[in-house]
Amino acid sequence: MEQLTHLLGGFGAVLTPMNLVWITLGAFLGTAVGVLPGLGSAMAVALLLPMTFTLDPLAALIMFSGVYFGGLFGDSTAGILMNTPGNSTAIATTFEGHRMARSGRAPQALATSAIGAFTGGILATVLVVFFAPSMADLATRFGPGEYFALALFAFVAISAVVSESPLKGLAALAFGLGLALVGTDQSTGTARFTFGMPALFDGISIVVITVAVLAVGEVLYAAGRVGHRGAHKLIPSAGRPWLSGREFRAALPAWLRGAGIGIPFGIIPAGGAEVPTFLAYSTERQLDKRRRKPMFGKGAIQGVAAPEAAGNATAGSAMGALLSLGLPTSATAAVLLAAFQQYGMQPGPLLFERNGDIVWALLAGLLLATVVLLVINLPFAPLWAKLLLLPQSYLYAGITVFACLGVYATGANKTDLVLMCLLGVLAFAMRRTGVPLAPVLIAVILGPLAEYSLRDAMANSGNDPLTLVGSPITIALYSLLLLGLAWTAWRRLRPAAPAGADREEALETQG
Amino acid sequence: MSHTDLDSGSAADPPQAQAPPRALSFWDGRGELIIGGLLLVMAVTLVIGNTGMDVIGDGGLLGPQGVGWFVAALAAVIGVLLIVSALRRTPERRGSLAAEERTNWRAVGLVLLGIAAFSGLIDVLGWLVMATLMFTAVATGLGNRNLLRNLTVGFVMAAVIQIVFSGMLGLNLPSGVLGGL
């Protein structure tokens, strides 16, 4: 039980008044961006990244994790009360959640979703505490061949397997890989694709890319939709603000099932919590059909409980994959990885040895953040919904000011600002065409890892390509990859899946 | 990523009535043409960069250029496939896509102008002026027609940021033309 000792040490480090302030601040910010449609935790962390240079690494990282978890707490509020999910991760919750709200059970839906998010987050984080160190131990045996396989796995999984259209996913991946190539080659010192501009010798700053893609692109996209939006009515959340014993007993197994579905998805680069929330939703619906009195379609509490638990469970185990393997499995995790790098730390197997104190304090901070989030969400969800009354124009104008401030603050040079404009336009074009943005971030972050592992593997083995499939770990990863591709092909040749149909229906009713 | 769905903002334009069906122009329902074109531009840029690269030392089998060639090839293939799929799309499908892609270009242009002006003039005119103007441009672009109030809110926000970041966090924001006052 070495982990418990470490974790207690982590609590000792994190339980200072200042750190508690950062956790609470992160929880508040995360809930706010989660509630507001169009803003996500990835964008919030990207905007905070340049402003936290001067902060102590632990303080910044626990705040970011609070934002990550908080985004998944808040996202269902707008979905339940207004039928406009704050994020794609809340679409599955919205089906039954909004029906509950319409039948006068809005407080119960909000409470079910907050407790669900709490259950998923706590269970996943506890599992990470116990298993991440052994996963990191396993990963210390990784050589360049294994890392190349891991990066390739992430690339193909996020762009081809889970993406709506593999072609668009691969297009996003190609943009990201291209951006990552700019700068000085680490192994030979050759200047690559800098075209004589000294400002590009250090490569394109990750802050510039994340801010441009997530914030500037989003603002342009929102501007493009002015005048084309549908109005939505906010259903007031009034009445008995707690769950009855019967409701609790109905929701409890769904919370646990949802968490069980969500946890494994955190370590698969599936682009976040969208896939597991839908899986949890359709599982509950299948189970509901066998009940004597099916509730789905009339506001079933299980349909809210399971997807919410799945969403936060995915975020929890994604933190585990990030810390122990250095593998970002969602856009937010990719931005968090950039945050670690900003403080000179490299997530992955060596992190537990080199920065053990910070890792354990961060895990303790995550558990605390989940509790703080439950406290600020369970009783106050209707108050958070008031955020939806903020004028969108000021909100987006404020985001733009912070985006430019952040990019200017990192380097105070014009090249960064010009790049921000260009990449913002690229992100706008991608959003407008339905090209996913997460593969860009994953490619920018993991591109260099893939390239240098491949080149190291070639150099170490005297250019023998068989070295890439020379260990059980690589063979396992490539087999998983092939299975994923086969599953994708099978899914596409089959008529539309029930969950997919629901989702299209949801998108139509939203628009 | 998120599926943006905006509620009606305070002073936003009323939602426009469904546009009457009209003839499809060449670009309607073919948003991928732009993405494909950009991918091809990137592929060409990578090829030019690779052929003109001044390679230092021995980089092994792949060298500093190897992955560049691979990404160029990937971008070119995906770009061509996207363009072909956009050109071969049926008119019905394009019609429904064009409705989804409908864009308020004036709003996008105004927001982009604000951001570009900030990037170009920040060193000359300073943070306070440019941040206020950019805030106003974005807020106006997003449908808030109350110019005076946009300017005021933007100015207050820019001033607070200047005080907090320059005064308390030691981040240097240019004062520009206002520096001499």
Describe it:
The complex is a heterodimer of chains A (511) and B (181). With 511 residues, chain A is mainly α. Chain A has helices spanning 2-14, 17-35, 41-48, 57-82, 91-102, 106-139, 144-161, 166-181, 206-224, 245-265, 274-289, 302-325, 331-342, 351-354, 356-377, 381-385, 392-411, 414-433, 438-460, 472-493, 498-510; strands spanning 183-184, 191-192. In chain A, strands 1-2 form a two-stranded antiparallel sheet. The longest helix of chain A has 34 residues, at 106-139. The radius of gyration of chain A is 22 Å and the shape is globular. Chain B has 181 residues and is an all-alpha fold. Chain B folds into two domains: 27-103; 104-181, no CATH class. In chain B, helix 4 (105-141) crosses helix 5. Chains A and B meet through helix 8, strand 2, helix 9, helix 17 and helix 18 of A and helix 1, helix 2, helix 4 and helix 5 of B.
Observed structural traits:
heterodimer; A: 511 residues; mainly alpha; two-stranded antiparallel ribbon; 2 strands; 72% helix; disordered C terminus; B: 181 residues; 2 domains; 5 helices; flat; disordered N terminus
